[in-house]
Fold this protein.
Amino acid sequence: MKVLVLNGPNLNMLGIREPELYGKGTYNDLVNFIRYAARELDLNVEVFQSNSEGELVTAIQNALGKFDGIVINAAAYTHTSVAILDALKAVGLPTAEVHLTDIHSREPFRQLSYVGMYARKTVCGKGFDGYRECLIWLKETIK
Ligand code: CA2
């Protein structure tokens, strides 16, 4: 079972800025966490981060036929990107949305999630653990 984990803009800054909001772990720590969780669940995982909306759209398109499911933290594009929503719909893979913070208790502009209009599962406000929860949900959903 192959899962693509996508991370959007600025998540590569984890641990460098705003640790009070996003935690002290670095992006590298997050990738290691995801790989470890995937191994425990016997999932084959690929992790990709980009600051570019187009690269994320292309990564979603390229997942067709290669991956069984997607976990996505589209970061700020969550709240703006119809292109990412359209790509997820076009590819049609089971998708779980994850956010480190609880977007529902933050600014009004974070209340709208385009990704959430397609994703059948959303986990937010649980930090790194949210990625593991999404992987568990995908494993259950795909089998
Ligand atoms: O809570 C999340 O995971 C978010 O997807 C993070 C995004 C934010 O725009 C979403 O509303 C919620 C921001 C990611 C930026 O990450 C940073 C990490 C460290 C320092 C600065 C930004």
Summary: Residues 10-11, 13-14, 17-18, 22, 73, 75-76, 78, 99-101, 103, 110 surround CA2 (CB under 6 Å). The chain has five helices and five strands. The first helix runs from residue 19 to 22.
